[in-house]
Amino acid sequence: MTCETEILCGIHSVLEALNAKRRTFFKIYISKDRNLSRLNEIIELAKIQLIQVEFISIKELDSISNRVKHQGVAASVSHLPIKKAESEINNLGSGKNNKENIDNRKEIIVVLESIEDTHNLGAIIRTAICAGVDHLIIPKDRAVQPSPAVSRISAGAMEHADIWTATNIASCLKLLKKKGFWIAGLDADGKTPLFSSDLTGNIALVIGGEHQGIRPLVKKECDFLLSLPLKSTITSLNASVACGIAIYEVVRQRGFT
Known about the structure:
Number of domains: 2
CATH topology of the largest domain: Alpha/beta knot
CATH architecture of the largest domain: 3-Layer(aba) Sandwich
Number of strands: 12
CATH class of the largest domain: Alpha Beta
Largest sheet: 8 strands, parallel
Helix content: 25-40%
Order of helices and strands: EHEHEHEEHEHEHEHEEEHEH
Shape: elongated
Strand order of the largest sheet: 5-8-7-6-11-9-12-10
């Protein structure tokens, strides 16, 4: 496989990539040794989309997938299209990003500050898609990137996510402020309790990395820092859990429909 392709493994990742239609499919590999009942939908979509399907042995599929858990299916695909955060932020409200005008529709952006664990990124993306988050911003460097592993962990939700990468997170937050966003950082030392804050406007929710939280230069750009109530001597939650709670508080306040 060339650097222009990657291998998606697992029923959910392949199926959601087919449904999302954001990648180019070069070939789908299906084990001829497996019960096809759970794979029929993939086979039918491949036929409709004129994608070649090859039936191979489990041993061959194990080799193609580099022994990643594949559930009897893998696909050779193009990379997921990722956008540049700075350009997309500048287009907010201009109609160039095919969204409603920002003055008429309150948006939710999740900004992930140096998340390093693929399981955390996959779980956050899945929650964000389920809750209706509009965009996710991740650093271009020193953070886990969207990958087949993240897609698999997200149960294919990543295939539908609008992900932007940023060269400089702090600069992106400054741009978002100019576009009318409130920047809310989730921080253990935050002075604003999450459940008593007003999150009904355009919100960029900043989630810190697993080890150092939100870095000082990024924290400086936050309009306020939110904290979660903890009735324990344990001082913090897993990043994906904390992010999920905060996302659903945002959508709860604006009416989850």
